[in-house]
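Practice problem 4.
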């Protein structure tokens, strides 16, 4: 039997090629920590093993078993985000916190995805979610300045990290880039009309299958028509997602069709996902159950719901929070081509 092919990462030549990216990553890491400290944020360290890894239908976790001293076994999961842990701390009384640590997502690997990656997540109690848009703009500029670049470039697309981001609603983006009437498929309370969205998407040249749900069609329009046009020239803040696509966000005041959720884009790359946080525990449970029902339908599995988190949510004050893919930010700031070029030790391929 022949020996397995060694990983290329530990070749001295290969490592020397990556080393400038890795050193720049370290500088950005230090600068980000200093930025948050200067604004009275506390860095927290979330436990990676959780009862629930997160309850979004299309996120996949790594799972293991905890064995007690008496031999009893219980399933635990590596978290896909430190969100539940952070919100428990907000319920306990913390006001401004951030986490810069590892998270895990299974079934994900490619130029912009890795099964283990670093997430920067931060929360502000009693502040509007629009403040997070300003935070995101500041962090883009900070990363660029620290890495010594004036322009992000990726796959032939450029973005000025120092420019004020464009703020674009999802409905406006659907109309501008796809000619799709998104709001025409939403009821006054945020209910979705699958057939209305499917008809509009089909007219725009988007393939729709008979068994596609409203969420499937929404996702296809985003991926095929909208995302490739975001963050070109300057960053884009894509905001006001339909409530049906914002499982952890509160509805926008005065318009329950959409929610206080935005995503940040540069060079067509999604960098951050932010919410005005939902604090209604009963509504959050309902959404989690719906997400897990969909996961069961599509993948034949579901994750448990963290009752401890929902109990904490009843005491959590109004807050806004954002999660930013730190490795992607480092990739754009350093000029790397793949996410594994900015990881000190990439996960072995299997």
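Answer key:
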């Amino acid at each position: 039997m022949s020996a397995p092919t060694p990983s290329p990462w530990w070749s001295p030549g290969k490592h020397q090629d990556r080393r400038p990216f890795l050193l720049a990553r370290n500088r950005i890491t230090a600068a980000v920590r200093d930025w948050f400290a200067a604004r009275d944020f506390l860095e927290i360290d979330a436990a990676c093993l959780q009862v629930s890894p997160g309850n979004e239908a299309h996120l996949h976790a790594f799972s293991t078993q905890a064995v007690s001293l008496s031999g009893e076994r219980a399933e635990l999961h590596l978290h896909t985000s430190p969100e539940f842990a952070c919100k428990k701390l907000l319920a306990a009384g913390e006001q401004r916190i951030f986490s810069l640590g590892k998270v895990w997502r299974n079934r994900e690997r490619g130029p912009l995805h890795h099964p283990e990656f670093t997430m920067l997540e931060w929360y502000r109690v009693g502040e509007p979610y629009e403040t997070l848009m300003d935070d995101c703009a500041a962090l883009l500029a900070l990363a660029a300045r620290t890495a010594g670049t004036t322009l992000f470039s990726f796959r032939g697309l450029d973005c000025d990290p120092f420019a004020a981001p464009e703020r674009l609603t999802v409905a406006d983006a659907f109309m501008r880039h796809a000619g799709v009437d998104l709001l025409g498929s939403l009821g006054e309370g945020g209910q979705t009309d699958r057939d209305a969205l499917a008809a509009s998407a089909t007219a725009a040249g988007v393939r729709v299958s008979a068994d596609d749900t409203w969420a499937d069609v929404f996702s296809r329009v985003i991926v095929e028509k909208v995302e490739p046009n975001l963050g070109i020239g300057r960053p884009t803040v894509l905001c006001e997602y339909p409530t049906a696509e914002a499982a952890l966000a509160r509805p926008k005041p005065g318009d329950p069709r959409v929610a206080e959720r935005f995503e940040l884009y540069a060079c067509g790359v999604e960098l951050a996902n932010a919410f005005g946080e939902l604090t209604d525990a009963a509504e959050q449970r309902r959404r989690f159950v719906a997400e897990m029902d969909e996961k069961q339908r599509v993948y034949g599995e579901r994750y448990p719901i963290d009752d401890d988190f929902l109990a904490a949510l009843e005491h959590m004050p109004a807050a806004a929070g954002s999660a930013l893919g730190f490795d992607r930010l480092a990739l754009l700031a350093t000029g790397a081509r793949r996410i594994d070029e900015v990881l000190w030790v990439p996960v072995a391929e299997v």
